């Protein structure tokens, strides 16, 4: 409030200063009764006041034309309204004063009269009054022509008085009553009946006396019965006579002839003025008469001039499509060609009154301004003229005169309280301002125009003062206050963002809110929130007090229902912090009390939504209030709680609303007279806490599903309700197979419940006996349908069961559903990972999924596998040894666990099993070992022992030599880290003494011979019993040459025991081009030069 008072004080000082300044400016004004301004006469002056003298020139032209004897007798004078046509006529009257009498007929002034009658009557009257025509004969002729006709009709009707009527009644009743009395035995009754006519007569007499207020004289008694002899009715009708075309033309001819007889001769010039101002229908009628009487017939001594505005004529005759082109007082017509043709048919000659040029109108404006204001407002003239020029894109001299006269009127009212330029702005834009004062004055375009026209200080106050006729000091308040009151009540046509532009918006708003007792807070908040979006930053702090006032008023109101209004959000956003906290606490407590005390049904969903929004707004506004800390448990009715449950879903514990289990069960079971299927959103029951048991509702639903006649209209409601109520998952088959088959044909794909039917068919295996299953399944294989079925199928079965079914079948729809479920969050599914691992390979094959991905999916059930898969059953669970290749390539907890088990499993296998399964194609332990051969713990000790024994068996041909690049070959190579010296000594001894080594055995044992064989000590035997027997094998030779230094040393050390071996090498070298062999031969002492001549 102090801010508002200060602002008003500043404005008062400013106005007072301006008043003193203006008084000083006008101190030289003469004293006395001389007025400072006056209204301008708007009648035609008969003078050309424009510098170009266009009116004077035009009047001379017309006058010269009329003086010619051969001229046309009807002339058109074209010009816009107010362009000076009447002034041209006045000029013309003066120029033709000696030769013509000018009669001006105001058609607009006679629009309520008969135009023909009025024209002839006034023309004749004026000509006789001016003694242009003789009075006596022409007055008599006029009286005969225009006399009113009166018709009288009289009718006489006889009339009887009421006394006569009484006498007739007595005369008729007397004999009748006498006859009736003769039949009555009672004497008194008979007397009364006979005396009745006499009583009637006395009654009539007394009635007459009472009505006239006196007793009649004896001579007047007869008059009662006489009354009036007749009733006379008279009808009169009076008709105004309108001259016919023939009599009109005859009359005008007589006038022309009479003028021709005068000496000196003065012709008659008739001017039909203001014709284009008549209503369209009257214009047509009058124009038709003019055309008929003057265009189609000429009178020797009568000439007619018809001034007209072509644009307004086109509107009257509706020629073309007429519209405004956006500029003031300017009309376009697309039918100008048609109206021009119409005018040419009427006028042989048309003169045009031209608008004034720039220099002309400015000079004319200045002259009229000084005529109205003198020198007192000379300083304001340039600004006032600019305002006029800006407002009027097209104007006439009459517009200038009208504008200045309106300006004079306003200054008479306001004096020096408002400068003339501001009065001029209002005059120029009066229509726009009055249509929407605040909207127009605060508009951006208006503000820009005002600044351009040098209207700055207190522009709004002055315009508001003129609009509401109040002092400028109060104008701003009047202009803004009412609009603010309407705005806060939601009844204003103005937007809050517009009102904010007013310089005193905050101050006036504060006053309005403080003085409005029945404020609609919700509407006020809504509107002020819009204002806050555009409010200047320096005024935002001032608005906090206003928002605090609104919040305080809200705290006084009782909350009847849990409804969160937008106004609450706005107050929490803009009010000061203490008001925010108070409002938040008020709303939380109010909502709870409304739920506790209401005797009628309240919407539980509204309670949830309101608190949710409140909590969000509290967080955003920075309030310290915690909703959860201020809530208490509130018990409500079952219907209210159910609606709350629908809105809250799984979040229904959040706001502590509850109902009794019995009430809820009774409400649901008896919903709509037992038609529980009509329950809205039955799926919401799935979010109930486990403590809610609803046996009645569940039982009724189960009965409906088993026994009711399910249809496409009710199946979805029943099955949805059943899934929500049942505590067992997956569900037992809710409907029998024959019913499912029937419903599949009734419910079309995409309709509610159809996907549940498909899910049940898959879950319970119904599809196996369904004749048209392939067609049905094919229609469900699009991504959207698969996703929908996958989202509900686990209501009827588990993912584990579905995956187990895949080990025996490759149904495309089942495969796609399983893959979709695997892509979802695995923690939501039920399955036994141990059973799936038993069938890992066929499931992944039919599922068309990468084994690594499926194993990663099963890894979510690592706890189950740790509990159920151990060393004792690993071979049973993971029956396919190829599985471990997938486990080795997967980095997930389940794979790591199974890898560890596999290694322990291999380490636990006895030596005997390793020997027994050596060479078996389907050996499980060797299959598992093949995946972990490079593990640092492989081979296990029992296998190492078995390998030594198996090496001896290979040497004596008891078991075959492992194929090159086979797993067993790799196994022996990986096991070479062992010290096999003793084993190799035994193997070599066996070859030295009795056994024959084959090339295959040499190739297998050769690396071992070099690593563990004691070949240096037994070089002679090794050369003779080993090398000599395999040297001719190409593969063995290549291996020997590959390790030439090693074998060359053995042969050289064998000396003469290697003679046969050398001979074989020499022969091979002589036949071969292998340079390596020849070098090896020379290295072991073979001289090949003797043979080759080298």
Task: Provide tags for this entry.
1094 residues; Rossmann fold; disordered N terminus
Give a structural overview.
This protein is mainly α and 1094 residues long. Among the domains are: 54-113 and 264-355, P-loop containing nucleotide triphosphate hydrolases (Rossmann fold), CATH 3.40.50; 154-238, no CATH class; 984-1094. It has 59 helices and 11 strands. The chain is elongated and about 190 Å long. Mean pLDDT is 78; it is low at 1-10, 15-34 and 319-334.
Write the layout of secondary structure elements.
Layout: H1 2-25, H2 54-67, E1 74-78, H3 85-95, E2 100-106, H4 115-129, H5 135-146, E3 149-158, H6 162-181, H7 187-194, H8 196-212, H9 221-226, E4 230-239, H10 245-260, E5 267-273, H11 280-295, E6 302-308, H12 310-317, E7 322-324, E8 331-333, H13 336-346, E9 349-352, H14 358-373, H15 381-391, H16 397-414, H17 420-428, H18 430-435, H19 437-441, H20 444-452, H21 459-468, H22 472-488, H23 496-499, H24 505-514, H25 521-534, H26 540-555, H27 566-574, H28 577-597, H29 604-621, E10 634-635, H30 638-648, E11 657-658, H31 661-669, H32 671-674, H33 695-707, H34 715-725, H35 737-746, H36 754-763, H37 773-778, H38 783-792, H39 799-805, H40 812-823, H41 833-838, H42 840-847, H43 851-858, H44 862-868, H45 874-877, H46 883-888, H47 893-907, H48 911-916, H49 924-929, H50 941-955, H51 967-974, H52 981-993, H53 999-1012, H54 1019-1030, H55 1034-1042, H56 1044-1054, H57 1059-1071, H58 1075-1083, H59 1089-1092
Parallel strand pairs: 1-6, 1-9, 2-5, 5-6, 10-11
Antiparallel strand pairs: 3-4, 7-8
């Amino acid at each position: 409030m102090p801010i508002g008072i200060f602002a008003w004080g500043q404005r008062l000082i400013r106005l007072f200063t301006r008043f003193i300044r203006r008084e000083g400016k006008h101190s030289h004004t003469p004293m006395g009764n001389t007025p400072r301004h006056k209204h301008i006469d708007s009648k035609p002056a008969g003078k050309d006041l424009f510098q170009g003298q266009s009116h004077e020139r035009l009047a001379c032209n017309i006058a010269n034309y009329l003086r010619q004897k051969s001229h046309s007798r009807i002339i058109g004078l074209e010009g816009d309204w107010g362009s000076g046509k009447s002034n041209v006529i006045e000029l013309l009257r003066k120029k033709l004063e000696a030769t013509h009498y000018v009669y001006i007929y105001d058609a607009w002034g006679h629009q309520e009269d008969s135009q023909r009658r009025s024209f002839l009557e006034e023309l004749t009257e004026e000509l006789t009054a001016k003694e242009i025509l003789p009075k006596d004969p022409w007055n008599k002729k006029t009286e005969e022509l225009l006399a009113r006709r009166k018709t009288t009709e009289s009718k006489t009707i006889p009339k009887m008085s009421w006394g006569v009527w009484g006498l007739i009644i007595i005369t008729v009743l007397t004999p009748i009553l006498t006859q009736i009395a003769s039949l009555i035995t009672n004497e008194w009754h008979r007397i009364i009946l006979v005396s009745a006519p006499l009583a009637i007569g006395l009654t009539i007499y007394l009635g007459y006396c009472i009505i006239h207020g006196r007793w009649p004289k004896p001579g007047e008694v007869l008059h009662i019965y006489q009354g009036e002899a007749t009733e006379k009715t008279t009808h009169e009708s009076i008709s105004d006579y309108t001259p016919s075309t023939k009599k009109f033309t005859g009359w005008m001819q007589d006038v022309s002839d009479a003028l021709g007889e005068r000496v000196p001769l003065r012709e008659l010039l008739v001017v039909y003025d203001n014709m284009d101002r008549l209503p369209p229908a009257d214009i047509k009628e009058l124009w038709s008469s003019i055309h008929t009487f003057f265009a189609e017939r000429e009178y020797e001594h009568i000439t007619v001039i018809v001034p007209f505005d072509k644009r307004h004529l086109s509107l009257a005759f509706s020629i073309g499509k007429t519209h405004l082109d956006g500029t003031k007082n300017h009309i376009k017509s697309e039918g100008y060609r048609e109206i021009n043709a119409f005018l040419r048919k009427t006028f042989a000659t048309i003169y045009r009154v031209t608008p004034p040029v720039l220099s002309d109108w400015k000079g004319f404006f200045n002259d009229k301004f000084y005529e109205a204001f003198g020198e007192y407002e000379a300083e304001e003239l340039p600004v006032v003229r600019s305002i006029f020029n800006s407002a009027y894109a097209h104007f006439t001299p009459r517009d200038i005169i009208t504008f200045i006269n309106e300006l004079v009127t306003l200054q008479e009212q306001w004096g020096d309280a408002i400068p003339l330029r501001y009065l001029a702005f209002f005059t120029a834009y009066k229509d726009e301002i009055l249509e929407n004062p605040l909207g127009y004055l605060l508009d951006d375009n208006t503000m820009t125009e005002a600044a351009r026209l040098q209207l700055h200080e207190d522009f709004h106050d002055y315009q508001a003062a003129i609009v509401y006729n109040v002092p400028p000091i109060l104008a701003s308040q009047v202009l803004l206050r009412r609009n603010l009151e309407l705005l806060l009540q939601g009844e204003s046509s103005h937007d809050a963002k517009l009102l904010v532009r007013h310089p005193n918006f905050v101050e006036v708003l504060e006053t309005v809110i403080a003085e409005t007792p029945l404020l609609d807070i919700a509407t006020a908040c809504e509107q002020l929130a819009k204002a806050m979006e555009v409010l200047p930053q320096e005024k935002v702090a001032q608005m906090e007090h206003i928002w605090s006032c609104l919040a305080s008023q809200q705290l006084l109101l009782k909350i009847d229902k849990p409804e969160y209004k937008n106004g609450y959000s706005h107050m929490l956003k803009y009010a000061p912090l203490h008001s925010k906290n108070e409002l938040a606490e008020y709303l939380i407590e109010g909502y709870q009390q409304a739920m506790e005390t209401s005797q009628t049904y309240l919407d539980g969903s509204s309670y949830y939504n309101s608190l949710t929004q409140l909590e969000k707004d509290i967080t955003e506004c920075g309030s310290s209030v915690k909703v959860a800390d201020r809530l208490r448990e509130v018990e409500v009715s079952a219907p209210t709680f159910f609606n709350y449950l629908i809105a809250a879903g799984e979040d229904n514990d959040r706001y502590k609303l509850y109902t009794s289990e019995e009430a809820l069960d009774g409400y649901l079971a008896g919903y709509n007279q037992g038609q529980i299927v009509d329950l809205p959103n039955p799926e919401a029951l799935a979010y109930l806490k486990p403590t809610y048991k609803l046996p009645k509702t569940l039982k009724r639903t189960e009965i409906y599903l088993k026994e009711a006649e399910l249809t496409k209209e009710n199946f979805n409601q029943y099955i949805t309700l059943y899934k929500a109520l049942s505590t067992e998952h997956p569900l037992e088959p809710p409907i029998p197979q024959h019913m499912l088959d029937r419903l599949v044909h009734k419910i079309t794909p995409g309709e509610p419940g159809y996907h549940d039917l498909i899910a049940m068919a898959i879950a319970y295996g119904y599809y196996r006996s369904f004749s048209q299953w392939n067609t049905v399944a094919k229609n469900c294989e699009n991504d959207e349908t698969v996703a929908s079925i996958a989202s509900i199928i686990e209501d009827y079965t588990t993912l584990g069961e579905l995956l187990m079914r895949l080990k025996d079948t490759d149904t495309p729809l089942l495969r796609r559903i399983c893959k979709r479920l695997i892509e979802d969050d695995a923690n939501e599914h039920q399955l036994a990972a141990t059973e799936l691992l038993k069938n890992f390979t066929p499931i992944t094959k039919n599922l068309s999924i990468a084994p690594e991905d499926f194993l990663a999916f099963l890894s979510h059930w690592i706890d189950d596998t740790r509990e159920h898969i151990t060393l004792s059953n690993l071979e049973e669970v993971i029956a396919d040894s190829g599985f471990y290749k997938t486990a080795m390539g997967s980095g997930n907890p389940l794979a790591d666990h199974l890898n560890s088990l596999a290694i322990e499993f291999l380490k636990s296998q006895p030596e005997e099993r390793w020997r027994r399964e050596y060479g078996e194609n389907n050996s499980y332990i060797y299959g598992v070992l093949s995946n972990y051969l490079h593990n640092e713990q492989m081979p296990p000790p029992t296998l190492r022992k078995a390998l030594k024994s198996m090496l001896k068996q290979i040497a004596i041909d008891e078991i075959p030599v492992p194929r090159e690049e086979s797993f067993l070959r790799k196994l022996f190579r990986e096991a070479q880290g062992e010290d096999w010296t003793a084993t190799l000594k035994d193997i070599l001894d066996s070859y030295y003494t009795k056994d024959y080594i084959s090339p295959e055995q040499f190739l297998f044992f050769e690396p071992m011979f070099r690593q563990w064989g004691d070949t240096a000590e037994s070089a002679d035997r090794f050369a003779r019993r080993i090398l000599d027997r395999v040297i001719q094998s190409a593969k063995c030779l290549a291996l020997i040459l590959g390790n030439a230094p090693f074998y060359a040393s053995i042969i050289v050390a064998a000396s003469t025991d290697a003679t046969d071996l050398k001979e074989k090498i020499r022969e091979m070298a002589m036949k071969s081009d292998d340079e390596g062999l020849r070098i090896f031969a020379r290295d072991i002492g073979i001289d090949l030069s003797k043979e080759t001549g080298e």
